Amino acid sequence: MLICPNCKSEYQEGYAICNDCECELIEKPEVDEEDMTVKKDSKISQFIGKLLIFGVVFVIGFIILMSSINLGDHEMSNIMKAHGGSMDTNTYLIYLEQSIIKYRILGSILSLLGGIGILTTTNSKS
Predict the structure, then answer these.
(1) Which residues pair with 24 in a beta bridge?
(2) pTM of whole model > 0.85?
(3) Which of 30, 31, 55, 69 has a 20 to 30 A CA-CA distance from 100?
(4) What is the pLDDT of residues 73-90, one digit of tens each?
């Protein structure tokens, strides 16, 4: 069977030019239903895979963001151990604040990247 590459009209053998748009006709490729099913399944699994990866990145970022105070406190206990167990209070507070800020920024970036990835993946599926 022949089809018009321009307007997609179908023609029987014997025609060379489309009656509607006067474009040269081409032969319609045979589509195997099994091949179409495999391609569809592959696209669905790719979609689910991307959605899962971006979802995990979002959740990890959110957990880091919500745990930033505990993570900063844990980091400060390690810094205190490295300094022999004592440190000036002002220095301790500066280090603690910077540690918490670091984890908040990391969590925010991961959450944003994961969320944007989820949105773009679901929008490209539509």
Answers:
(1) 17
(2) no
(3) 55
(4) 999 999 999 988 888 999
